[in-house]
Specification:
single chain; alpha/beta; GMP Synthetase, Chain A, domain 3; 7-stranded mixed β-sheet; 4-stranded parallel β-sheet
Length: 502
């Protein structure tokens, strides 16, 4: 099977059903398939070997992805907000790229050798008159490249993750049943197109028959308005989005007549206070926490609605702590925690998270496969499994601070500071130090109106952790630098070197 198989199943099973867009402007399964094939013909005629997509959320995104599959070439969505030089450099590394952009000026075409063409997405693939003409599409093999995604590069330079048809198909088949959605089901997608969640949401929701509504630019008010107007039943957001939605609801935004039944969040850690407020403000919504990576074709572990309800209602500290977990591994995947020597860790012991399964790619254009001989992928995330099989993610192994030869996990300090009244958000990183190698820097965003002092933060941590884990520097910011999917850009913070007693 390949992505075209999914498209063909959507066409056959949901041909007359509106599968993309709003109730007033969208595409049926048959229209999606026809336009994607027409786009594939255009790409083939232009001799394209890669499709680069630099647009926002919208109908052009799925059309461009399936047109790429129809032409038998890989699809690379890029963040058009990157610097022009970065975009040009990435595009220049691709084989005969065809570039689809909402604003072609984001990229200097003269700097990209062998370009097959540049077109505004609205002029090429989103045109309603692009449905005519049918020809036999290419037939990608399961091992052919389907999607290329740039990793977020929160701690180092981004790399090109390779997802082949077999990886994405395995994820779809392992997580959703074909045609399982009702005709009235709708999902709102507000994560950016260049994130694995956007690709995964597209494929799984199309396969289930759930209509996909795209939100081009996120604001909490616009999200709530669209959810209400389009009768949205399912949604996926990143933590920064959920925090803003919660603030909007708390400020008096009407929660009715929302039909929302399921709200997934993931992509980065969520502050416990935000989750507690969300559960209270949306008591009839089933919350889902999903943990996954670009290299694993999306989610590998899920904390479902039942887990959320059980943990929130429990008086058992061990059960209630599961609200801070990412749930249990998906049934078709294996997760193992290993220590520095490669041995499997006991329950509760922190180590590096390894994942194995058919959806796991673990491959980069720059380095090739990084899985071991048995197919295990080293995520470079640290965490542990509890006795019940719930996975807790403690952060990237790259984030570990080595202070005077001692390894210190930023997540442990962040969890403590997050409990301090008046703290909205915090990130702990290693800062350069001639004496210690690294010193501990805590970057804190106060809640509006809160009065915090660095000495108070240090005292709060020292009373709860060893003095060696007390921040050497506390830096107050109005906001932390994030990726569009909510991950903290620690490399930007670690570039700051304030005096130790700020």
């Amino acid at each position: 099977m390949n992505l075209l198989t999914i498209l063909e199943m959507v066409e056959a099973g949901h041909g007359d059903r509106l599968v993309l867009g709003t109730q007033s402007r969208g595409l049926t399964g048959s229209q999606l398939a026809a336009q994607a094939r027409r786009g594939g013909l255009h790409l083939t005629a232009r001799g394209a070997r890669t499709v680069i997509y630099m647009g926002e959320n919208g109908l052009a995104f799925p059309l461009a992805l399936f047109a790429s599959a129809s032409a038998g070439i890989p699809f690379l969505p890029l963040n058009y907000r990157l610097a022009r030089e970065q975009l040009t450099a990435i595009a220049g590394r691709q084989e005969r790229p065809f570039i689809i952009a909402d604003d072609p000026s984001h990229l200097h075409s003269g700097g990209v050798a062998g370009t097959a063409g540049i077109a505004e997405w609205g002029d090429l693939l989103a045109r309603p008159d692009l449905g005519g003409g049918v020809a036999a599409p290419a037939e990608p093999g399961p091992g052919d490249e389907a999607v290329l995604l740039m990793t977020s590069g929160t701690t180092a330079a981004p790399k090109s993750a390779v997802l082949r048809h077999r990886h994405l198909v395995s994820y779809v088949l392992g997580t959703v049943d074909f045609g399982s959605a009702t005709p009235d089901d709708a999902v709102i997608v507000s994560v950016p197109p260049y994130h694995i969640a956007a690709v995964a949401n597209l494929l799984t929701n199309l396969y289930s028959g759930r209509r996909i509504v795209y939100l081009e630019r996120f604001t909490a008010a616009r999200w709530l308005d669209t959810v209400a107007a389009e009768g949205v039943t399912h949604a996926m957001v990143v933590p920064t989005m959920l925090a803003r939605i919660v603030d909007e609801l708390a400020a008096g935004a009407p929660a009715a007549p929302l039909r929302l039944r399921s709200l997934s969040y993931g992509g980065a850690p969520l502050a416990p206070s935000v989750l507690q407020r969300a559960l209270a403000l949306l008591p009839d919504v089933g919350f889902v926490n999903a943990y996954g990576l670009t290299e694993t074709s999306s989610s590998v572990a899920v904390l479902g609605p039942g887990d959320h309800r059980e943990a929130a209602a429990s008086n058992d500290p061990a059960v209630r702590a599961r609200l801070g977990s990412v749930g249990r591994p998906l049934p078709h995947l294996e997760i193992e925690i290993r220590d520095a020597g490669g041995a499997a860790c006991a329950p509760g012991q922190i180590g590096q998270i390894y994942v194995r399964g058919a959806q796991v790619a673990g491959e980069y254009r720059e380095t090739g496969p990084v899985t071991d001989d048995e197919g295990w992928f080293p995520t470079r995330d640290e965490g542990y499994l509890d006795a019940g099989g719930f996975l807790y993610v403690r952060g990237r192994s790259d984030d570990t601070i080595i202070r005077g030869g001692e390894n210190i996990a930023p997540a442990e300090i962040e969890e403590v500071i997050q409990q301090m009244p008046g703290v909205a958000e915090v990130a702990v990183v290693g800062l350069p130090s001639e004496e210690w190698g690294q010193r501990i820097g805590a970057f804190v965003v106060p809640e509006p109106g809160a009065s915090l002092a660095g000495d108070d933060v240090r005292a709060f941590v020292q009373a709860r952790l060893r003095s060696a884990k007390t921040p050497d520097a506390v830096i107050f910011l109005s906001e932390l630098p994030h990726t569009a999917t909510g991950k903290i850009l620690r490399r930007k913070l670690s570039a700051l070197s304030p005096a130790p007693s700020t």
